[in-house]
């Protein structure tokens, strides 16, 4: 991924920073858009994965919509130039302020996660003499077989309407003059690499769509969510198999004529297009452990501390040498969990070496913080 020209450029930049490969981002976007076009599927980009302005503009230019989970994400999507008719608003805890702002922006749809939320949106829309388009996010109780902290589709999770509450949803929809039912919405988790999981999801989507149809509702949209994972172990496997992913839904969804199928993909599009570049501050060699202390920490990349997530780590200054030393690669933050990797096999490393932490395009920069009064992490971009 990194040319000698890239590494020479890094040497002149203050670390740490996120480096974005815009060419790779463009190839990922093209692969996703082309694969979806075969089936006339609609893709909304999950903004929570990465809302860097430059990245968002590329995604908007590729024709994708925006999937938002906060009022500020909705406003950001509109500011960047996403069409209002392509913006959807999900989230288990939308505030009245956020709902009102989204109503004013005339977004395409609210993905609603409780009966009480339906009541609130109807009331707020009524005060504005507006009709709010809504889809019901249903908890299908499908196991995504991913990390427990990023599973969202089980009965034990806080997300979505449980099946036993659907009759109340149906009654509320029929009684609400300021709501327009658009369809059903699902999202069962993130970093899903076993595509068979989506076959199980399709079975449940078919069941719930039929449930609404039998009660007189027209299901215009099947929103299947996202969650497609990337290969963190092999970051050179840069673009997920979008063709196989979309084909599963084409093969297993019972799509009606004129019914739209919507997706909400984030990590699969942006995950591999960025790396966190850092410098070695100190090397501490001990009897039982060798430590590399970087100038990047959990304030720049939270995932390893939060999920025990794996990211491939490379010494860019010693690319030609043989990896012979095991290091715990840690940051400068005053927390024991401030660690990017344990027993990482690298070339013998020295103070000042440049280190790349790969596959950080999703949930990297967006989760950075000012803890310990750290400065905001900077960014750099490849020349396409």
From TrEMBL:
It is an enzyme of class 4 (lyase). Its EC number is 4.1.1.20. One of its GO terms (biological process) is lysine biosynthetic process via diaminopimelate. GO terms for molecular function: diaminopimelate decarboxylase activity; pyridoxal phosphate binding. The gene is lysA. Its cofactor is pyridoxal 5'-phosphate. Pyridoxal 5'-phosphate binds at residues 227, 264-267, 363. Pathway: Amino-acid biosynthesis; L-lysine biosynthesis via DAP pathway; L-lysine from DL-2,6-diaminopimelate: step 1/1. Belongs to the Orn/Lys/Arg decarboxylase class-II family. LysA subfamily. NCBIfam families: lysA. Residues 18-361 form the Orn/DAP/Arg decarboxylase 2 C-terminal domain. This is Diaminopimelate decarboxylase. Homodimer. The modification N6-(pyridoxal phosphate)lysine is found at residue 48. Pfam families: Orn_Arg_deC_N, Orn_DAP_Arg_deC. It comes from the Bacteria.
